[in-house]
Amino acid sequence: MKKIILFLTLGLLFPLISQAGCCGCDPVYAYDAKGEVKSAVWVRDQACTATGAIIDTLKAGEVVQITDKTDGWYKVISPRGKVGWSGETFFTITDKALTSSASSSSSSSSSSNFSSSSTTTSSSALAWLKGYILLQVQQHGEAWYVNPTNFKRYYMKDGPTAYEMMRTFGLGITDTDLAKIPKDTDSFSGDTALRNRLSGRILLQVQQHGEAWYIYPKTNKRYYLKDGAAAYEIMRYLGLGITDTDLAKLAIAELSIIPYSNNSTPATPPTTVINEGTDPRCGSKPGFTSTGPWIAGTGSFQKGSVPAGFNYKIVTQHILDRINYERTKRGKSAILSDQRMADTASVWAEQMFNQGQITHTRLPVNMIARVWVWDNFKIDFCESWGWLYENIGGGNYNRSEGINESVMASMDSLFDYYMSEEAANGIHYQTIMHDHLTHVGVGFYFDGDNDSGSLYTVLHYGGLYGNVPIIDKTW
Length: 475
What we know:
By secondary structure, the protein is an alpha+beta fold. The chain contains 11 helices and 24 strands. A hairpin with a 4-residue loop joins β14 and β15. The strands form 6 sheets. Strands 1, 20, 21, 22, 23 and 24 form a 6-stranded mixed β-sheet that branches. Strands 7-6-5-2-8 form a 5-stranded antiparallel β-sheet, with no helix packed on it. It is globular, with a radius of gyration of 24 Å. The two termini are about 25 Å apart. α2 (about 160-170) packs across α5 and α7 (about 310-330) runs parallel beside α10 (about 405-420).
C-alpha cells in the first residue's frame, strides 16, 4: 500500500538563520553606496535573523548610507542614527539624497502607535486589497495581512505570528491543482480561473509535507513560505505601503488564543499528582499536576479502531531508538519516552481525526500547541524554556505487512524526512537535535478497521520534570 506522509512542525524556538547561511561566518567587505528602501525593513544589530535584535525600522522610500556588506546583508546608517544590518534585497542602489532625521521623524511616531481601528467592517472601496500585505508607512512599517475570506486585517508582528497565520488561514490544495499556479519565477500562465479564485490565499500542499505557498494578488503567482521567518520576510517584501487613514478603513481582527475544551460546559476535572521530578536536566521538583479534561498517565491513549496485535511499546521504542541514535552520535543527550507526552499526542491525533484533517489548528479558536497542552493537561515544563514541539503526519497500517511493522514503516518515512534536512539545518532537524529536549511521546489515531486503514500521527517533544514510564498496556 502506498504510504502518504504529511508532516508539519509547531512551537520551534528558532527563527530562520541568516540569509548568509551561517550567522557571522561570512566575510564583511567595505561598501560605499546609498540605498533606497523598496519595502519597509528592520535594522538589526547583527547580520542574522536568528540572533540579531531589531534596533530600527526603515520605511519604504527612505534613502540610507550603506557602509559595508556581507552575503545577503547591507550595513546601514538609518536616518535616526542607528547603525545595523538589513537584507540586501530590500534596497535599490541610488544617487538620491539621504533621508534626513527631520524628514523621517515628521511623518513617523512611536512604533507602538499603529492604527487599531475598532470598525467591524471594511470599506468596500478598498476591496481590491484583499489578500495583500500592507505596510504602515507613516509609522515604522508594521505589516498587516488582509484575509480574503473575511476582509479583515491581522497584525503580522513577527515570524512566529506569520507561522500561525500560515496554519490558521492555510487552505489545503492538491499537487495537481497547485501545478496549475505558476511559481514567481515561472513564465507559463496556468489556470487563470483558479489563480483568480485563490488570489491572496495561503495554500498548504496536503499531498506532500504541508508546504505553504502565498498567492501574491498582484501577479497571482505563488511564493514558497519555508517557515515563519521566511514567510515574514517574503510577505513583507511583497507588501504595499498604506497610510494610517486608509488602514483605519479596514476592520481589525486578531488570532485569538483561548482555552480549548471538548465540551460545551466542561466539568471541573480532578487534580492528580503523578510523580516526583528527578531529571537532572531540569532539576528536581516535587511532581507535576494534571488538572485538564484528560488526566495524564492513566494509559487511556491510542485512539480509533486500534487493530488487534498492535503493540505501542514496541513501536514507540523503535522511533525512540532512531531518535537517540541520531542524537547521541552528534553529542546530544538521549531522551526518554514519557506517558504524559504519549497521552497529549494521542488526544491531539484524535482531535485531528475529528476535524478530518492533519492540522495544528485548535478549535473552536486557533491556539498554539504548548498553550493547548498547558490549558488541558497542566504538564510542568522546565521553566526557562517551557516549550512543546509538535510534529504531525499521516501514514497507513496493513495487516498483510504486519500491523506493528507497517506502523513502524510509516514512522520511518516521517523520520527519514526529518533527517533529510540536516544539510540545511532545517527546522524539523533542529527539533530533534534541540539541546533542551528530555522527553517524547507518540500518539496515533487508527482510521480504519482491524486489518488496514490510515493513521493520524502526532509526536510531542518537550523538556519536562521527572519521568513517567510507558504503560505496558495490553490491547
